[in-house]
Design a protein that fits this description.
The protein is α/β, with parallel strands linked by helices and 247 residues long. The protein is built from 8 helices and 15 strands. The protein is globular.
Length: 247
């Protein structure tokens, strides 16, 4: 079952979005979808922080009293890194929305096609996030969710998997190519790019593109080689465009 949380202080808009989600479920009968509606952003924030009962996808208005959608999105990302779709009447918050890893940024009035495309992306994200790959680590076989890997570094001939929660999984000593040793993880998530011969990066956890490096969410600076600079910038800008952010 896919659990959607929808938060908007406008009761009419809340019901409209819920109706569109139902329509999405109707044309995807193989998906079992459940929506829970929140007219108060504070109630949703408290629900997540206190009960730790997480949803698979969050659809949030931005301009709300008590607690705006951006701050609510930060709570969600801190607690569970679930995909977030922002729905708002203003374009001015697009950059802030990308800062909390918005999957999509939709301007009201919400059109069926736009929302359905965003829900397609969310379903794909959830599907990828639940995938688990067994990695040969120094502790034996270790299960890893590719979507939860922030970046992979080739260090001392071993792949170091830096996870979104700060944990690190160290692979066995690699006697072949770095690219081959991490292929089982990288090929399971389309968000991975290869900006440098010693790194693979999950774009979902990139905070910003700088002159010659990618700034990760945890503050790490992943270098971009001259050879890969043009391609990295192109892929990054495409990713921003898909997610509704700006460079």
């Amino acid at each position: 079952m896919l659990r959607f949380a929808v938060c908007d202080d406008d009761a009419e808009e809340l019901q409209r979005i819920a109706s569109l989600i139902k329509g999405y479920n109707d044309i995807h009968p193989n998906l079992e979808v459940m929506s829970r509606l929140f007219q108060s952003p504070r109630k949703l924030g408290a629900f997540i922080e206190n009960d730790h009962d997480f949803f698979d996808v969050y659809l949030l208005d931005i301009l709300m009293p008590e607690l705006d959608g951006i701050h609510l999105g930060k709570i969600i990302q801190h607690e569970c890194h679930a995909p977030t779709i922002f729905i708002t009447s203003s374009k001015e918050y697009a950059l802030d929305a990308y800062g909390v890893h918005a999957l999509r940024y939709i301007i009201k009035p919400v059109h069926r096609r736009q929302l359905f495309e965003a829900l397609d992306a969310a379903v794909k994200f959830v599907s990828e996030f639940t995938k688990v790959v067994q990695v040969k680590s120094q502790d034996g076989l270790t299960p890893i969710s590719p979507a939860d890997v922030a970046y992979i570094e080739n260090r001392a001939r071993a792949a170091h998997y830096l996870m979104a929660d700060g944990k690190e999984v160290i692979g066995q000593t690699n006697r072949g190519k770095f690219e081959e040793s991490v292929q089982s993880v990288v090929e399971e998530n389309a968000n991975f790019i290869h900006p440098h011969k010693s790194f693979y990066v999950n774009l979902h956890f990139v905070r910003a593109l700088k002159a010659d490096y990618l700034l990760m969410e945890n503050g790490t600076k992943v270098p971009i080689s001259r050879r890969n600079m043009a391609e990295t910038k192109h892929i990054y800008l495409e990713y921003l465009s898909r997610s509704g952010g700006r460079a």
